[in-house]
Amino acid sequence: MQNEVNRRKFITNITKGVGSAVILSSPLVSFASGFLRTPVTVGEVMDLFKKEVSHEMGTDTVDTLKAGNRDIVVTGIVTTMFATIEVIRKTIALGANFIIAHEPTFYNHRDETQWLENDEVYRYKADLLKQHNIAVWRNHDYIHSAKLDGVMEGVADQLEWKKYQEENQVIYNLPAITLKAMISHLKSKLHIQTVRYIGNLDQLCKKILLLPGAAGGTTQIKKISTMKPDVLVCGEISEWETAEYVRDARAKGQQLSLVVLGHIASEEPGSVFMAQWLKEKFPQIKTSHIPAGNSLSFL
Fold first, then answer.
1. Distances in Å between the alpha carbon of 193 and those of 134, 149, 236?
2. Looking at the domain that runs over 42-147, which CATH code has it been given?
3. Are 285 and 74 in contact (CB under 8 A)?
4. pTM for this one?
5. Do 109 and 62 form a contact (C-beta atoms < 8 A)?
6. What is the pLDDT of residues 79-135, one digit of tens each?
7. For residues 68 and 18, what is the distance between their CA atoms, to the nearest angstrom?
8. What's the CA gap between 254 and 170, in Å, rounded?
9. Residue ranges per structural domain of the chain
């Protein structure tokens, strides 16, 4: 109670000196949650999430700012898979100025832009971000390297599979379900129109190997070989690698199926996870998740 009295006296004294209207409209302070709050910068948000990783990431990480700078005072945050032009426009409409994307902004893994300097699409996008003073941070390596992989946590939560999860985060032991029913569940929970698959739709599936994103054919095949799942559910494949391995495994008599969700759909829940983390750590900042959606359409 005494602290509350002192706080009110402090506020009263300030408002007498400079005027309450000036204080309340100042971007430097707010009274969210009953406390005086100082501005939060882009760098402070980044640094706090980096503490979720117990080891040094090193200079080789792709998790760098793609636009803006660390000193920008955050007015709102958007999480997404890709900072597309559409997502940027929605960010502007929300009055936000910080986008945390999981994947590249400028069409290559390291967001190298020298080769794009004369490209009109790149220039439009880069200028749009600069014009509205929007910072874009890629959070890929850090979220995957957190104490619990944030993408895996987000996917498991959205699929309602966390209670079936083993310690390694990639194996799920489900009650017996047909491949057809499991595909229906995946499509419903992850908001996917179509998937690609190999297998007998009537096959009963229990042990699921879940590898969102693009783990690569060698990793996918090695995990199939050692973990012996009924089904590999993954984000994307090279058709000439994992798909051919599964085809040969089935020809050998192995009851192995494959479901390919698509890269974006398989990892989008990680950006939902990130939004929830931000809301818990920075409740005074409006945080929104904007799905990037699939760039491809299907006939």
1. 32, 26, 16
2. 3.40.1390.30
3. yes
4. 0.85
5. yes
6. 999 999 999 999 999 999 999 999 999 999 999 999 999 999 999 999 999 999 999
7. 33
8. 20
9. 2-34, 42-147, 162-264
